[in-house]
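thought: user wants a sequence for this fold. calling inverse folding tool.
action: design(structure=
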């Protein structure tokens, strides 16, 4: 099957089903699966049985994902409090587990170090530190290995672009709105905070703990909770939760955070005023920085003094900058819409909203992961 057919028109609407696999991993893996079916059944199978192949492949991915999450979930939880030296999911653990899922003809107890290095260099495994890998990428590697247990070679793609999403999740801006795929962790910066996100990969909670995990069958969150985690400022409002669960939010009052102070007169003027009145809080704006791309510019102030400057890109990675970098950017690019959120506003709204959001997510998850609803998505 031509890869242009897979990636160009067939796969995108289906990609969230295959989490934690990325677009490239799904494209490569499904192509290998398709070709093996053609080899077994003949060329006439190529056109006639597309739906069957997709369904059969998806069943394999789901079974592999469920097995991997059940195996890794408790280990990852304990590894979060272990030092790097004592983490169980180490390079040796990964080498052993990938060997155990290889064909019976593969006699070694571990895959070789060069093979592991090739998997890392292909960006299938993402390094956290020396000998330690991001557990979500370990899960995707194990899923690929389980799906293609009959293959000794070519079970993973030769290269995944470094800026590619890790996997795709489902998103819905509000009840009744279309359900559409959303890349993760690079969720669009203009995504409405009340947007509901969910995935059949419960390991989403291994990275950002704002995901509400449903046992080992999936996870759900709001875009606003992810933004809050990444930017350290409240993004989700009581009214957003009320959209999703009017009955559960009825009668619940949340102390509304003070509105952001207008800092649109320009960064230099805003900094002078904030320093004069010794304000503490966060100056923020959507910016585009060369070498980083689009993201959220953040300037942390304590008693009017600049404490920290950075840009958080679309994948949530923070890039440190100097205050003069932002001033120069505004001089070159023109006016930037800066807003200032006082520290009191940040502190007052975060805890109560998070508790209420968790309650709403629990109710929504019961519907999303109902077996009947899963079949109808």
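)
observation: tool returned 377 residues.
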């Amino acid at each position: 099957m031509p890869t242009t057919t897979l990636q160009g028109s067939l796969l995108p609407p289906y990609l969230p089903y295959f989490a934690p696999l990325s677009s490239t991993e799904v494209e490569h893996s499904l192509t290998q699966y398709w070709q093996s079916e053609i080899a077994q059944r003949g060329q006439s199978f190529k056109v006639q049985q597309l739906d069957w192949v997709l369904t059969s492949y998806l069943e394999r991915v789901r079974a592999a994902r469920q097995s991997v999450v059940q195996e890794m979930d408790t280990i990852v939880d304990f590894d979060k409090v272990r030092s790097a030296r004592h983490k169980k999911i180490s390079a040796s653990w990964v080498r052993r587990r990938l060997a155990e899922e290889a064909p019976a003809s593969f006699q070694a107890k571990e895959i070789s170090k060069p093979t592991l290095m090739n998997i890392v260099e292909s960006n299938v495994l993402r390094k956290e530190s020396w000998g330690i890998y991001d557990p979500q990428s370990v899960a995707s590697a194990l899923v690929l290995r389980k799906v293609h247990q009959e293959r000794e070679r070519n079970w993973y793609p030769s290269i995944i672009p470094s800026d590619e999403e890790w996997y795709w999740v489902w998103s819905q801006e509000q009840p009744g709105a279309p359900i559409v795929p959303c890349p993760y962790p690079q969720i669009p910066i203009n995504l409405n905070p009340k947007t509901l996100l969910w995935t059949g990969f419960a390991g989403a909670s291994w990275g950002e703990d704002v995901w509400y995990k449903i046992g080992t069958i999936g996870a759900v969150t709001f875009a606003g909770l992810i933004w809050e985690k990444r930017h350290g400022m409240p993004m989700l409002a009581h009214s957003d939760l009320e959209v999703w669960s009017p009955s559960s939010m009825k009668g619940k009052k949340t102390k509304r955070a003070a509105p952001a102070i207008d800092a649109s007169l320009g960064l230099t003027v805003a900094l002078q005023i904030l320093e004069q009145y010794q304000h503490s809080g966060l100056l923020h704006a959507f910016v585009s920085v060369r070498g980083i791309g689009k993201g959220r510019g953040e300037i942390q102030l304590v008693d009017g003094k600049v404490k920290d400057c950075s840009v958080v890109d679309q994948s949530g990675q923070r890039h440190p900058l100097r205050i003069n970098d932002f001033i120069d950017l505004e001089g070159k690019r023109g006016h930037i819409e800066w807003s200032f959120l006082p520290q009191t506003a940040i502190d007052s709204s975060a805890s109560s909203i998070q508790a209420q959001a968790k309650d709403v997510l629990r109710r929504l998850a019961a519907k999303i992961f109902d077996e009947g609803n899963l079949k109808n998505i």
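thought: summarizing for user.
answer: Here is the designed sequence. The chain has three domains: 3-147, 167-256+349-376, 264-337.
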